[in-house]
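Dear Dr. K.,

Following up on our conversation at the group meeting, I've run the structure prediction for Heat shock 70 kDa protein 12B from Anguilla anguilla. I'm pasting the input sequence below exactly as I used it, so you can double-check it against your construct before we proceed with anything downstream. Let me know if the numbering doesn't match what you have in your notebook.
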Amino acid sequence: MSNGEKNIVLETRGCEGPGTFTMATLLQPNVNSLQTPGENRSVPPSPSCSPARNDCGIAPLTPSPSPRTVVRPQAACPFSVVVAIDFGTTSSGYAFSFTQDPEAIHMMRRWEGGDPGVANQKSPTCLLLTPELRFHSFGFAARDSYHDLDPEEARHWLYFDKFKMKIHSTSDLTMETELEAVSGRRIRAIEVFVHALRFFREHALKEVKDQSSSFMREAATLAGLVSTDAPEQLLIALEPEAASIYCRKLRLHQVVDLSTRPMANGIETDGPRLFDSGFRQAREQLRRARHSRTFLVESGTGELWSEMQTGDRYIVADCGGGTVDLTVHQIEQPQGTLKELYKASGGPYGAVGVDLAFEAMLCQIFGADFIESFKAKRPAAWVDLTIAFEARKRTASPSSANPLNISLPFSFIDFYKRHRGQSVETALRKSNMNIVKWSSQGMLRLTPEAMRELFQPTVNNIVKHIEDLMRKQEVQGVRFLFLVGGFAESPMLQQAVHAALGRSCRIIIPQDVGLTILKGAVLFGLDPTVVRVRRCPLTYGVGVLNRFVEGRHQRDKLLVKEGREWCTDILDRFVAVDQSVALGELVRRSYTPARPGQRKIIINIYCSATDDVVYITDPGVRKCGTITLDLPEPAPGGPARRREIRTTMQFGDTEIKVTAVDVPTSRTVRAAIDFLSN
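The predicted C-alpha cells came back this morning:
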C-alpha cells in the first residue's frame, strides 16, 4: 500500500478443475483503524458508551505484546496460470504466464483499432455504455464507436475516458460515488469499474483458453474473477513494487542507460539528437520482437542485477498516466529478496497533467465557456481533439525545432464560428498567444516553446518528488533510478530527469517501459514472497476503553461506570506508520465483551497517516474496516469466566489481514476490509 494513488493491477490465477481465479488489485486504503488492547489486565465491569463516542463492544483482556514474526513456508503453487491485469489511468492491458513455464511471460493479443504509428500493446482505458446503461465496448472499440455516433445520438450514450483518475481527488470515496460521462450523465463509479473488469476477465479467459484448453475445461462455470469461498486467491500487487520485481530480471540489452551520456547545462555534449536515439533503437527492437507476444525472463536474476551487491539501494519511479509512484528497495541477497526502505509515496503528476495543461491553453485562447459548451454539445468531437493531441504529445522532444500540428475537428471550427461569430484564426490572433499558430489546413501549430510550457509543470513536479525522496536519510546511497510506466517513454521527461539526477545515480529505462508493471505483476503472482520486508504506509490500531489517568487523558473522554473511571476512544496501535514489517509478521491481542451476556462484538479498524495520535477522534484518524463476530450463548452449567476474543493482524503482505476468534466456540471471522466504505 502506498500514500500515492495507485493504478489497479489485477492478478488472476486459475486452477485446473473448477475455474477459480485470483485477482490482485492496487488500491490505496482509506485511512482508518481497529480496536486493540489496553494498558492493564483488569476487565471493566460492563462499561457503557456515549453514542457520540466509539462503539465500545470490547475491552482489553491482555496488555499489548510486541509483534512477533511467524515464518511462513512458501507453499506449492496450486494454480496453473497467473494472469495480471494492469488497469491504468490512460491505458490498460494484461499478461499471463503458466506456472510450469514461469520464465515465459505472454502479452495479450494486439488490440484492434488504435492510432497510426502507435504500438497497441495496451488499450486506452475508455468505456462506452448504451443509453440503457448496458455495456457496449471498451478500449479502441469504445473510442471508435463513440466517434461514429451521430452528435445528437451521442448525447444519450455514456462514454468514460481516463475515469480512474477522476476518483483520485475524491477524499470520501464510497460505494455510492458517481462518475460523470462525457455527455454529462452520471452513474455509480463502482458500476463503471465492474463493466471494465468484466471485459478484461472475458478477454483474458478467452485467450488463456486458446493457449491451454485443458485449463479452461470448466471455465464456463466461472461467475467472476474471484470466489468468496477462496479469499486467498485475491492478491494486492503494488505497481512500483511489481516494476521493481521485473527489473531484477533485466538483461543489459533490454535497458536504456541514460546516465552513460554526459551532459552540459542539461544538453548532451554529443549533440541533442543522440538523447532520443538509444530509446528509439530500443523501441524498434521491441517492435520487431512483438510478433511472438512472449517475453523470456531470467530464471534467476538478470545481468544488470549482477552489477549490484547485497545492501545496494535503488528507486523505482512508476510514471503513469494519472500518477507517479515511488518505491525504494534494498537487495538482501544477490539472488533474492527485497526490502522496502521507505514507505511508498506518490502524487497526481502523471501524463494527464499535460492533457489538462493543453485544455487550459484552449480555454485561454477560445474561452472556458466555449470549451465547456463544446464538450457538452459535441462530446465525440472533443474526444477526437484529445486523441489528436495525445498522438502528438507522444512525439514531443526537447531537441525538436519544429512545431507540432494538431488537427482541429471541423465541428470545432464550425461550432466556434456559430458560437462566437468569428473564426478560430481570429481568436488565436486576439489571444496574443504567440507560441501557438494557425495553419490554413485547419491545424493548430504548437511551437517547441508551447510544448515545453505544457510539459514543464508536470515534469517539474515529478523531478521534485524524486529529489525530495532522495534527500531522506533512509534513501541515502541510491545507485539506480528505474523509470517505468507509459509516461517514462516521453523524451521530455527523460531529459528533465537526466539533467537533474544523472550525476547522482544511474538512470535506467526498460525497453518495454509501458509493460514493465504487467510483467512484474505476473512474476509477483508466481512468487509473492520476493519482497520480504515492507514499510507500513499508515498507523493501524483499534479503539478501546482503558483506566482513566488524571493528567494524561482528556476530561471529555471520562466515562464513569459502577464507580470506576474509564477513558473512551483510546487508539491502541498495532503498527506505526513507516515501521518495517516482515512478511507474515503477526500482532495478537485478546479482548473480552464489554457487557455480560453480549451476543455480538464489533471491532472497528482505524488508521492514521501519523504516529502521534492518541484517540480515534483525533484529526486524520479514520475508520477503514469492521469485523463483526456473533457470540452464541455458552453451554448451560459451564464455568463462569471472562470470554476471550483473540484478534490477530498479519502484516508484511501488500494488504493487512485481520482475524478474530471467539476462543470458547472457535468461531472465526476474517476481515474483508472495505476501503470504499464510510
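Two things stood out to me. The chain has a mean pLDDT of 74. DSSP finds 14 helices and 37 strands in the chain.

Best regards,
J.T.
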